[in-house]
Hints:
Elements: E1 2-3, E2 9-11, H1 13-21, E3 30-33, H2 39-43, E4 50-53, H3 61-69, H4 76-79, H5 83-90, H6 94-109, H7 113-128, H8 144-149, H9 163-167
Parallel strand pairs: 2-3, 3-4
Antiparallel strand pairs: 1-2
Amino acid sequence: MQTDIYGQQIYNEMELCLLYLQDPNRTIKRALVENDIKFDEVLELENAPELIQYNKLDMTIEQFDNNNQSNWLMPEQYKTMDIAQYILNQCQGEAELQRAGEELLLFQERDMFVLLRYLKYLVDTMRENNIVWGVGRGSSVASFVLFLLGIHRINSLYYDLSIDEFLK
């Protein structure tokens, strides 16, 4: 497997076959391929992944990131959810509402509500599939909003962690 400068994984025929055969639940939905592979025809598989021909892109990494950030792959219910209201509904008491409100304004200023929606989708998906993730590490634990979403288990309000630590 090759990885281009944008972090995209590009598979050849052999790698794709091995990857697909090692995935008993057929969770692979699409893959970038380096040449024209007729994967589903060769292996006659049901639910074969969508194969997308890799084309070298002519854009900066920043342009690539901006393009992808406007096209998050998540169910419609998460794309349209009022994430601010969801987070505020998780609060218990005035202090939590105040802290969550302050952080939500910072996320909104940085145009990061789509990221919060995706993180909610990610946490829900991990819980549905019994996937264990860490209790939290690094500066993310300073965010009370991320705690309310279930990204980590460190209550930054309880430990009096400043949101400025997260925003550094």
